[in-house]
Amino acid sequence: MRVSLIAVAAATAPLAVSAAGTLGFALGARHSDGTCKTQQDYEDDFDVLSKISPNPSSTPLKQLDPHTENLPIVRTYAQVDGAIQDTPCNVSGVILPAAQAKGFQVVVGLWAEALDADIKEFHTYAKQYESTVYAVTVGSESLYRYYHQTDGHTTGLSNDELNTAINDYTQAMLDLDLKFPVGTADSWNVYNDGTADVVVQNTNVSILLVNAFGYWQDVSICNASLTYFDDLTQAYTHISTVAGRPIEIWNGETGWPTTPGASYGVAVDGINEAYTFFKQGVCALLGWNKNVFYFEAFDEPWKPASTGLSNQTEPETGWGLFNSDRTPKFPNNDYSCTFDTMETNPNILC
After folding, report:
1. pLDDT computed for residue 154 by the predictor
2. What is the Cα 256 distance to its own chain's centre?
3. CA-CA 20 to 30 A from 97: which of 186, 238, 276, 345?
4. Helix or strand or coil: residue 73?
5. Where are the alpha helices (DSSP H) in 39-114?
6. Please, what sign has the CA dihedral across residues 44, 46, 49, 51?
7. What is the mean pLDDT of residues 175-198?
């Protein structure tokens, strides 16, 4: 692994913080049994998440659009969630009023392979809840699934197809006299290896979410934060080099799972492992004034398994910061960030 300057700093010194990034949460559309959430369910989610955010109250979100206030934030993946084919969930009409009621903002995810249905659902409510929308992402790991999963390009989109989808959504948005930051979310490696260059260079793109997991890199918990920092450093550097203009960049997903008995190579699931990664990885990145979406807010026991770069399949049911019933996982309900990379306590493993 090529170790970045950020990673070296994390390994060798306490972190001095003059400003901190924003911690957001990836939020699913379904209950633990796979049925669809209601507005009240989302409001209950927001009540829990609002209590554990380590964001300093004086830290504004890094946003190109000046309408944004300093509010807690979540991201979604689709506005008609079709993950369970027979029970699709309409998302915009329940999450946006819930977010407005509880003082949250939402990065609205549009599933690029079902764009028309998602635009229809979102735009039914977009004007009414315009101030609640932080940005819109078109596609979720569309390029990674197309170019890096060994399924013969049966899922995801090519870079040209994704660019077309982004442009189509931008025009649909402008036709309604809406103006949101628009971009996409994808894995760090497709940004770093140049696969996403044509998307990065698309002038309709003003925000990019970069997903990075030490876990899916098959590294132990004691090496996971360094791998995470290095992957993001490579991706962020490449984006900045090829973009030719300012682009808002977030770490779009990161986290560590807690499913008992599961592992991905030498990356072992566990509560203390997740707690260690949160303290040493997530909190450190926030301390460097970088924005992070934790994947994910709550466990989703209904979910199918996921496949990493080595094509090993593992459960994706236990990635939540909280259990599916919204009870805390971390020792002593400790979701704080001291922004000190040398923090120690009995539950931090490294």
Report:
1. 73
2. 13
3. 186
4. strand
5. 39-52, 92-102
6. negative
7. 97
pLDDT tens sequence across 93-137 = 999 999 999 999 999 999 999 999 999 999 999 999 999 999 999
* Residue (of 197, 142, 184, 187) closest to 308 by Cα position: 187
Burial of 16 (0-12, 13-18, 19+ CB in 10 A): exposed
Three-class DSSP category at 216: helix
Catalytic residue positions, numbered = 141, 253
Q: Evaluate the CA torsion angle 219, 225, 226, 229 in order and state its sign.
A: positive
Chain length of the chain:
350
Q: State the alpha helices, DSSP H only, in 151-269.
A: 159-175, 188-192, 197-200, 221-243
In this structure, what token pair is assigned to residue 123? 């735009």
Query: Distance between CA 212 and CA 210 in Å, rounded?
Result: 7
Spatial separation of the C-alpha atoms in residues 15 and 66, rounded to whole Å: 30
If we measure between CA atoms, which residue out of 245, 244, 246, 268 comes closest to residue 257? 268
**Do residues 335 and 25 lie in contact, with contact meaning Cβ atoms separated by under 8 Å?**
no
Residue 306 token pair: 């996921």
Q: Can you give the pLDDT at residue 53?
A: 57
Q: Is the pLDDT reported for residue 144 higher than 90? A: yes
d(CA 321, CA 257): 9
Mean pLDDT, the chain, integer: 88
Give the residues across from 306 on adjacent strands: 314
> Do 65 and 179 form a contact (C-beta atoms < 8 A)?
yes
